[in-house]
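Data availability (excerpt). The following record was deposited with the supplementary files.
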Amino acid sequence: MKFTTNRSIPVASSGMRAMLLTSLLWMSGAVSAQVSLQDLIKADSSNWFSYSGSYGAQRHSSLKQIDTGNVGTLAPKWIYHLIGSGRQEAVPIVANGVMYVPQANEVNALDARTGRLIWKYQRGPAGGYNRGLAISGNKVYMGTADAAVVALDARSGGVAWETKMPGPSARYQGGAPLVVKDKVIIGAITPASGTVDAYDSETGKFLWRWNAVPKPGEPGNETWTGDSWKLGGVPTWLSGSYDPQLNLVYWGTGQPAPDFDGTVRPGDNLYSDCMVALDPDTGKMKWYFQFTPHDTHDWDAVEVPVLVDTIYEGQPRKLMLQANRNGYYYVLDRTNGKFLHGSAFVKSINWADGLTAEGRPIVVPGREPTVLGNKVCPATMGATNWPSPAYNPDTRYFYFIAFEGCGINYKATDKFPVTGGPAGGSGTGYVESPDEQEQWQAYVRALDATTGKLVWEYKQIGSHHYGPGVMSTAGGLVFAGDMQGYLTAHDARTGKPLWHFSTGDIITASPMAYSAQGNEYIAIVSGSNVVVFGLPDRAGSAR
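Predicted structure:
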């Protein structure tokens, strides 16, 4: 019997459904998904409560059963196939022995120990991307491809509430929601601009919206000449981070529109390519930092920012770290957005001659896209991209996927038509550089988190476009996938590869870790499959 929960799909009778659900939950060893706000703040590593694993988005697990000494014995424990799925970018979440895996308009709840399906929710046909979910209390939250936020009962998959996003023709771009106190916060795009929206986590009531493109009379609108602000863009298509002590949510924003024709939008084009700090209670912006003013190369800043409390130049500081698509690594003071450090993390940068003391790029003239094409390094795909970085508090290293290479950027016409909503089109295209020495190549890199100095790198042979994120563990490991479908475990201090496994399909998601009944696991979504790894079974361990 197919057991699903959705009003548009036949389901079992209520009595049979309850019996099946009770049986399956008993087999999974989890009868309650209750996750408190303190649980989210504490972020116990036996669970993986959010897209980034914790509010600080360090993607570091304190689990250390799997370490540098035994990782060579890591083996697949189970595989779950996402039916009807293509290449997936999701990061599963785990709460109290249950794994929740999304794809577009769908959630699968699995026994995290065996991969057995507990329940499945589907909202119409799949389409687009869904990169992750959020959980709080007994509810799992997702954004849908048709611009709704849905809260599901984590124990049954039943719909607790759903709220259509306000505004015409709006859509959620697949980024995972972030639950902060009593609010579900999610990024979106509307015809006017990208937004960050907040909903009441219990009722689904729409509470506030922050618009990434300021309207006339609002601070920042003067950075868009004339009516060019109406072209909009600035999508907020990934997730954010949160500091409970400062009560600030941090969200990265995308590129202005049109992406590559800056002649129709003179100015810095705030708040494109920015990191913004928002008050989660009101949606009011507290500060911003712009990485690439007047971007004409599509170098958005949506990569989830990493929050670190550490000593910086002899003083304890609350830092924010981001490797940006424009090729520079940034360290900011997250209390006020002050620029502290910036340095190049790729060898080829030809669009800027460094950064000023305030962190503003020193732009090299003549690198704008042209009708005939103009070479820019790094390429529009970015010196890194949206897949998540990680930070290990033991090594104090920042780990991420970097891309060397250049591209050729084109303007579509000499005069871009100022019509058509958010961008009216991108205004151009781009291709990989034809020079063999400038073609795209992925690396796993480790930087000293406070200085940006390269500590080690590992060349991912055969990976030449985008790539998955990374995760570090207290077992001294860094896990990274690649385009060839290999998941590799590296020594966190040296980068030496200690183990690898071919999953059989392209990996464009980030790995995560959790434990269940005393056993620790590493999980990755590869293509349309969830693949879970663990150490060999211990004598007497239960299955």
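Summary of structural features: The helical segments are 14-28, 37-42.
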